[in-house]
Amino acid sequence: MPDFEKLYQKLVDTSRETAVLSSIQMQLEWDQETYMPSSSIDLRSKQLEMLAHFVHKSATSPKFKKLLGSLVDLKHGTYASSDFNHEQLANLREWRRDYLRTAKLPASFVRKFANTTSHALHAWSEAKKASRFKLFLPHLDKIIQLNRKKADLLGYHDHPYNALLDLYEPEMTITELTPIFAKLKLALMNLLREIQTKPVPHTDFLLKHYPPQQQMVFAHLLLKAMGFPPERSRLDLSMHPFCSGTPLDLRMTTHVHHENPMANFFAVLHEGGHGLYCLGRPAERFGEPLSESVSLGVDESQSRFWETIIGHSLPFWRNFYPLLQEEFPDQLGGIDLESFHRAINYVRPSFIRIHADEVTYSLHIIVRFELEKAFIEGNLKPKELPEAWNEKMREYLGIVPSKDSEGCLQDIHWAMGMMGYFPTYTLGNLYAAQLFQTLQKTFPDWETKIAHGDLSFLREWLKEKVHKYGRRYPPKELMHKATGQPLSEQPYIAYLENKYRSLYDL
Amino acid sequence: MPDFEKLYQKLVDTSRETAVLSSIQMQLEWDQETYMPSSSIDLRSKQLEMLAHFVHKSATSPKFKKLLGSLVDLKHGTYASSDFNHEQLANLREWRRDYLRTAKLPASFVRKFANTTSHALHAWSEAKKASRFKLFLPHLDKIIQLNRKKADLLGYHDHPYNALLDLYEPEMTITELTPIFAKLKLALMNLLREIQTKPVPHTDFLLKHYPPQQQMVFAHLLLKAMGFPPERSRLDLSMHPFCSGTPLDLRMTTHVHHENPMANFFAVLHEGGHGLYCLGRPAERFGEPLSESVSLGVDESQSRFWETIIGHSLPFWRNFYPLLQEEFPDQLGGIDLESFHRAINYVRPSFIRIHADEVTYSLHIIVRFELEKAFIEGNLKPKELPEAWNEKMREYLGIVPSKDSEGCLQDIHWAMGMMGYFPTYTLGNLYAAQLFQTLQKTFPDWETKIAHGDLSFLREWLKEKVHKYGRRYPPKELMHKATGQPLSEQPYIAYLENKYRSLYDL
Q1: Where are the domains positioned within chain A?
Q2: pLDDT digit string (tens) for B92-118?
Q3: A271 included as an active-site residue
Q4: pTM surpassing 0.80?
Q5: Residue of chain B with shortest Cα separation from A20
Q6: Does A234 contact B43 at a Cβ distance shorter than 8 Å?
Q7: Nearest CA-CA partner of A269 in A296, A232, A308, A323
Q8: B39 reaches A (C-beta below 8 A)
Q9: Which of A94, A271, A307, A358 is catalytic?
Q10: Which of A365, B102, B323, B385 fits A426 for a cystine, CB–CB 3.0-4.6 Å?
Q11: What value of ipTM does the predicted structure carry?
Q12: Do B39 and A249 touch (CB under 8 A)?
């Protein structure tokens, strides 16, 4: 009779070695986006390539496979011992899940994929700069082919898109998503149309000069209020904000544009949401699935919760707006709270997804979701993309980009080879609204608390409901446990209707 | 007949892989000293331990050994082909040198050494804090034993200390050092005694409040004048200033104390000297000895050249002092150049090596050199250190520390296991003075050029004479070629006599 506890501990140790290597990758990527001198890019690529090799080798080593296989049947998923506790079972389940996925993709395919996307990224960057879709077209074609091949290699039920979606949002299916997105689309289009009949709020005071140094004072004040301990986290600058690291070494970044301070503060709240999710996971379980992010959708629910639901709310700014005015008396001294609140919630169709407001954001996502689904099905040819894109933009948002750089070339995701990723952005919003609905019931006085500057109950509640579990439950199950409801578009629609009917006096 | 060119190229590629891994180590160490949140220290140790393992594995891999052995006889050093050019021969010579040294130390010894110094470092830190030598004594004892063992394993002629010295300053011997250091000691003691009969310069204006932000403006101005391209280098803050990186990604740090601005500026010039040496080596030879620093002594000659010989000189401040006054008008507006120059060259015996002036600095080094030599010879027992230390301080510098934290516990080197390292600090000063003597002959108008803000001729001359060669020649040979003279204490003594007789009106 094998000593299962001992084997399990060895498996944990082996997995931790892989995680140490991955954490080095993260550190180098962080440095590349923050402080690395530009001429170091070639060496950095070589460093990352070498680490990727080591990580892959470690995660698929015969030693790891043998240990894992001795504790759980790799083919059928049955466990070797009935003495494992629930946490051990969850770790074994997720290790198996990761291992099988990695093992299904032959090294030759992984190399070809990496090579293709490396060239595609370069071509995309040039194509976007020149706004010439043709430069990107042959690469997009290859990427679609490779993603269909990837789906075949991974295996799927019903629809090849499910295999891709599952990479980013485990167990999510197109069958579940399609009706939800369809209902959401209709509701958003209707709400948008109504809003567009109303007068446009003043926003000019947000476009004055806000000195970067003062912006950063306020950014740090936000993070402090969210509860970030400086000995475990930091905030730096990068072109595109992001969050990476471990629960004991969290690295967040933001961007500073001196004429758009809110882009900075909302980036801080967004990355702060990701950051609290990371800090809330058990640091002592480093290297185990139980300390990892469960899905992109759930991760995004945390960032959108803080950025939009809390960070764009009136109670939040009841507390913070006077502090913001204090930091920027010349720019905001004469603007009252309600005008500020209307300005930051200004809804209008626009071309660029990452600048979209809450109401139009998911319409941008649905455009992409429908197009990449059609790509994978073979119902849309790559060369038809610009026309199809513009047609959907016209239909859902009522505007048509005049150039592809503001249309189908704007996002990096497809060039990076990622299809099935976009829906997780909207899933994040849906989950966030479901969490918010539950929170309101749990804390009927939430508005008063937040208006008095108390954010700790939010952090602690999210930690208890979501963060502390890591990958203990699959994402849908985790969210069902946290909210008592299955995935639904209704809470998000209700939240938006409630907020914007009041704001726009509909 | 083997294809030697092809084998050689394979060897370069293999060596480059090791260098990529080492460069990751450097990056993580840089991050640890600059931006890493404190709670990440355990993970960082694990990351570095893993990388050290990979580096060692790569540098001693059977593949590397086989390739190297096919091009140069590992035992006798004879080359397999007469077609190698001089640069290839230099690379092969240095690869063999590194390989043999690494191979001579068994893995078990390396582990024991690492383990011992890890504990010693901790104990030293506690001992220094409490100023209790006894806490460090048992660890010092072990470290001396291990260094003697190390010398035996590495092998040596004449004296075991030579084996250790050779680790930091290839081909330097105690036979050569001893008479040089003896003559230097006498000359410095005499000069110091004479200076001490003279009035003390005013220095109070250097101890006023100098706002850190303004200090950094001036620090960057210095680096710009030295010729650092921002796309290849950067300056950050750390507790102890250092310089690391590659010719395409140079990382320098400094420290800022608001009441001691010169400590910041001299650190910038010092690390800048190391930095220019790095930038001046051939980036395209990354991974080859020809792109590496040839010795600690030569590296230190570059930092001391810029920090002391140039950076403490009158012509240098003729150009920069008006700019410094402009940045700090309240602190320096009423102080003339000559008073400032006397203040930054104030000579007085003090306890702490790293704060010592040019005249007393090498006396601190000689104290340590004589003591560690006696340790290795067995002529000094570890427990006798405090007394021996204080006795030498009294004799050479005329002062006795009242506590060991300001005496024999001040340096980290022995706790890190490094014996044979200290002399390279003084070698750096000797080499710098020899280079300076040559420079003065080459550019008779050097003072005028520098006083007009031209530093580029210094940078270019040092690059041509020293930097570009990497490890092409052993350090002594390189310096002989650059200066036309063998190693000697005379140029340094002459430089100090000349400077301080004039400054102190002796």
Answers
A1: 1-104, 204-346+442-471
A2: 999 999 999 998 999 899 989 988 998
A3: yes
A4: yes
A5: B47
A6: no
A7: A308
A8: yes
A9: A271
A10: A365
A11: 0.93
A12: yes
